Amino acid sequence: MSNKLAKQIARATLASIGAGPLEFVLPHVAGPDGAVIPAFDVLGSEHRMALVGEGGTGKTTLMHAFARATAGSYLAGILDTRAPILVHGARHDLSDGIAAVLRDLEIDVSPRELARLLDSDAIVLLVDGVDEMPDGRLGAFRIANILHQYPRLAAVVATRPGAFGAELSALASYTLAPFSKDQVAALIRTFGLGNGDAAERFLAFMRRADLPDAARNPPLAKLLWEASDGGSAPFVSTADLFDDLLDEGLRQATGSREAGLSAEQLLALLGEVAVTYHVSGWSTAPAADIPLELPGERLMIGHARMVEQLVATRFVRVDDGQLSFVHRSFVEFMVARRLHASPSRLIEALELGETSVEEILRFAAGLADEVAPMVELLLQKDRVLDAVTCLRFARVENDALSAYVAVRLGGHIGQGFIRRLIQQVPAALDYVQDAGEALGLHDKLLGLLDDACDMSRPNHERGKRFEGFTEALFDGPFEPVQRNFRSEHGELDLIMEVRGGAKFWDYWGPDIFVECKNLSRAVEAHQVHTFISKVEVPRLKLGFLVSVNGFTEDAYAAFRNVARGENRPLLVPISGDQIRQMLQRRGPIELFFKDRIRDVRYDRKYPARTSV
């Protein structure tokens, strides 16, 4: 009877998880002794083990692949194989035992039959995502009790590092290892890059230290490869790379003439859906049942069309009516993207969702212009290690805040540890030198800006110096092509060629116009309209208007009207105050330009008029 029931479970498991990817890249794992071996060698021989890996490193893909392999082998009658019972932590916390998992497979079994089955050599219990259970610690206790009750039951339990070590300490621990050369070669074959220069670049790309762990997932690796322009673009941060993916996805999803959500609405909706999934602990849900709505806004688009646009972003997918994010990292990024500007809402969502806290904070810190409000609120809640995470992944350094957090951390773990930690700073000498060069550039630009704003100079001299400053500021993602170009439509201060390595810039090239205004007053609407005509005539896609003393409300309205027009260029206002704040914070300059573009594209609130 047990053999017949086990075969029924194996067939139902195969039906529930489907065929899987056409080409599966077999990962390796590092064992307790540090030796790196193919994952299937361990899965097929270790009686009970924990599979440990960061979010997005391929644990679920590996668990599904092993479930397919072992179910197929068991049904084929191969000796010493077992039928898998696959438990998804996001769906089952084992509060109702394994019987509830089998009921989902439409298998009804009596308690006596189930006990006999689990106490045989016919079953391997696969638990994917203990950390995704509503109460992971309680779930880990339940797993430990089941294994204690049935000593002959084999098990593989997948979880993130550092989670539930005490509860699962009886399991041999294996950690997913970084890509090996043969795995990268398999990915190259998957992506059809052949053996030429592209394949060599991809090989180097996959070995980069700044590549996020999530890139071990083949589909996400492909997206990141494309977003980085074939690996040639440097990463400012993982958050920046995901932001580029998002921009491209929104462009694809809103590019048709069919009625649908605007880019701004779709961005907000994607964030709301991600927050719902995170707080609810979902990995998947029926697409027809998901509330697609924005707080305080009535969306006049049908549910099916909104789902279609969400899928077009490539951040979500729908399989058999079930909507899920393509990768868990996308949920984490979109939660951070939606809430990073409101630290209180962000931390509330983290407390409700409990899992992925560090990953979401990494993204949030990489997106925020200033992490101080986030860090201060975390410290108020005595979440010192979370505050450390924010500082570690922040766009800009804040020495005073870092020192304060170090004191708080020392209070928790002892000042002796902090002293020993400080002694390790010389090992980071190369990083410190690189950071010093970057800080020197910011100081140089601040000096040029102060010089251009010196009111003791004649107007024409200040104008000339401000153009020189603006050229120096833009020199990075852009390269000067011509200065003070005279056309029949007026003089153009700067023509710049887009040379930013990230795929984000491909859409806006090859050339842009930059207009410089070093006036004693804010730029007015009629001056914006003049600039509009200069950009529209040669049919450029992007122009920047940089004004020392900002813009009037009517001028900002002119920018908004152009941004909402179909087939019109994107005109981006940048005020002197925004520039000065970024330089004083030592912010990444390329990200500064990207953020100003996104301010206009997604119709964010424009800054009030201020002066430098």
Automatic annotation (TrEMBL):
<protein>
    <submittedName>
        <fullName>Putative NTPase (NACHT family)</fullName>
    </submittedName>
</protein>
<dbReference type="Pfam" id="PF04471">
    <property type="entry name" value="Mrr_cat"/>
</dbReference>
<dbReference type="InterPro" id="IPR011335">
    <property type="entry name" value="Restrct_endonuc-II-like"/>
</dbReference>
<dbReference type="Pfam" id="PF05729">
    <property type="entry name" value="NACHT"/>
</dbReference>
<feature type="domain" description="NACHT">
    <location>
        <begin position="48"/>
        <end position="190"/>
    </location>
</feature>
<dbReference type="GO" id="GO:0004519">
    <property type="term" value="F:endonuclease activity"/>
</dbReference>
<dbReference type="InterPro" id="IPR027417">
    <property type="entry name" value="P-loop_NTPase"/>
</dbReference>
<dbReference type="InterPro" id="IPR007560">
    <property type="entry name" value="Restrct_endonuc_IV_Mrr"/>
</dbReference>
<dbReference type="InterPro" id="IPR007111">
    <property type="entry name" value="NACHT_NTPase"/>
</dbReference>
<feature type="domain" description="Restriction endonuclease type IV Mrr">
    <location>
        <begin position="463"/>
        <end position="563"/>
    </location>
</feature>
<dbReference type="GO" id="GO:0009307">
    <property type="term" value="P:DNA restriction-modification system"/>
</dbReference>
<dbReference type="GO" id="GO:0003677">
    <property type="term" value="F:DNA binding"/>
</dbReference>
